[in-house]
Write a structure and sequence with these properties.
Blueprint: E1 3-7, H1 12-28, E2 31-38, H2 54-71, E3 81-87, H3 90-100, E4 105-110, H4 116-120, H5 123-131, E5 136-140, E6 150-155, H6 160-172, E7 178-185, H7 192-208, E8 214-220, H8 224-235, E9 239-244, H9 249-253, H10 256-259, E10 270-274
Parallel strand pairs: 1-2, 1-4, 2-3, 4-5, 6-7, 6-9, 7-8, 9-10
Antiparallel strand pairs: 5-10
Length: 276
């Protein structure tokens, strides 16, 4: 990993996500691209606020960026970084910059993370996760950076998950993280077919993924989010990872009906991989 894009709105939540960004940048000797997307204030979607020009908004954002860098003492952190400001819709600007600069990862803070609805369905975070081709880490405001000892990867047995797991091992290696691959089944009872399927998936994964600290866990129950909640708590996980595909576990977990019920994610960041 050579380059990390760090979008910021200069909030405390963003400062917390910066700790994660610096932590990863240090491990990989990666460069941090700090970026802020600003726009003219509006009374409505169509009517801009009169009295401010785009140049004034840009100048204020530039000053805020300089203040943010000074406040967080980035010059003394021992990491390479550069900053930029643009005028436009934040999600559009982030996705465009990530593609233009060919960044390896986007790390961004999420506000008011009392549940997954606020973490992942906010306009900026969800749009970036859905549209960015590179991995994205969404960091809740209460997620303290303490390294990455344990990572939980949630799988639905998709073939593309193997690619995501391979990428995850590359991220985990400098930290010597333990990766726990979890499948959550809605089938209750002692269903041998489900357990055989999980056993075969484990066997196939171990043939293709060579990483020493890899373990597997099958959780059985009707409530997907509660099962994952329990696993994250029991494992004291530092990160939840999954591949982002239509109709996979990401879609099930973050559907509006399930999202409202979930509160476990207030301290655990999500890493999403886009795999086609």
């Amino acid at each position: 990993m050579k380059t990390i894009l760090f979008p910021t709105d200069f909030s405390e939540c963003s400062e917390n996500a910066l700790n994660w960004t610096i932590g990863l940048a240090e491990k990989f000797s990666a460069k941090i691209l700090l970026h802020n997307s600003c726009h003219l204030p509006t009374f409505s979607m169509q009517i801009p606020f009169e009295g401010l020009t785009e140049e004034q908004v840009f100048a204020e954002a530039t000053q805020n960026m300089n203040d943010f860098i000074k406040k967080n003492k980035l010059d003394s952190k021992g990491v390479s970084f550069e900053s930029s400001v643009s005028v436009g819709l934040a999600s559009d600007e982030i996705v465009s910059l990530a593609k233009e600069m060919k960044v390896d990862m986007v790390i961004m803070g999420t506000k008011g993370a009392t549940g997954l609805e606020k973490v992942l369905l906010g306009s900026n975070a969800s749009a970036v996760i859905e549209r960015c081709s590179c991995p994205v880490i969404a960091v809740p405001e209460n997620a303290e950076y303490r390294g990455m000892d344990k990572i939980v990867f949630a799988t639905d047995y998709n073939d593309n998950d193997l690619m995501a797991i391979k990428l995850l091992t590359e991220l985990a290696m400098p930290f010597m993280s333990e990766i726990i691959i979890v499948h959550i089944s809605s089938i209750t009872g002692t269903d041998t077919l489900e357990r055989d399927k999980f056993s075969k998936y484990k066997e196939e994964t171990l043939k293709k993924i060579h990483y020493e600290k890899l373990s597997f866990q099958l959780a059985v129950g009707l409530n997907t989010e509660e099962n994952l909640d329990t696993i994250l708590d029991e494992q004291d996980a530092d990160l939840l990872a999954m591949s982002m595909r239509k109709r996979n576990i990401f879609s099930r977990l973050f559907s509006p009906s399930l999202t409202k019920k979930m509160s476990y994610h207030s301290k655990v960041p999500i890493l999403s991989f886009h795999t086609s």
